[in-house]
């Protein structure tokens, strides 16, 4: 088996009227989500997920689920966690 990876993606998330959908009774979904199912072992490794552009209109991107990178396992959270804690690369909405 091979671990999952995400390459060369452009993910743009738009909100309701430019705002978080939660402000209108909805829910903003994670920008990247990797299933935290224990059967998915090893988790998706951040260092093989390259050349991605992530953008979210109403705030920082959300990277949730089960990821591995730089000796860490878990959810990077936002762009800073993706790059600084898990060693991810790409372009975020900084």
Q: What's the count of strands? A: 7
Report the sheet with the most strands, covering strand number, pairing sense and barrel closure. Answer: 3 strands, mixed
The end-to-end span amounts to 35 Å
Low-pLDDT runs: none
Mean pLDDT: 86
Tell me the count of domains. 1
Query: In order across it, which strands form the biggest sheet?
Result: 3-6-7
Order of helices and strands: EEEEEEEH
- Assign the structural class, choosing from mainly alpha, mainly beta, alpha/beta, alpha+beta, or little secondary structure: mainly beta
Oligomer: single chain
What does this structure look like?
The protein is mainly β. The protein has one domain. The protein contains one helix and seven strands, in the order βββββββα. It has one helix spanning 79-85; strands spanning 10-13, 32-34, 44-45, 53-56, 63-65, 67-69, 72-74. A three-stranded mixed sheet has the order 3-6-7, with no helix packed on it. Strand 6 and strand 7 (72-74) form a beta hairpin. The chain is globular and about 40 Å long.
What topology does this entry show?
Layout: E1 10-13, E2 32-34, E3 44-45, E4 53-56, E5 63-65, E6 67-69, E7 72-74, H1 79-85
Parallel strand pairs: 1-4, 2-5, 3-6
Antiparallel strand pairs: 6-7
Task: Summarize this entry quickly.
This protein has about 90 residues and is mainly β.
Structural descriptors:
94 residues, mainly beta, 3-stranded mixed sheet, two-stranded parallel sheet, 7 strands, 23% strand
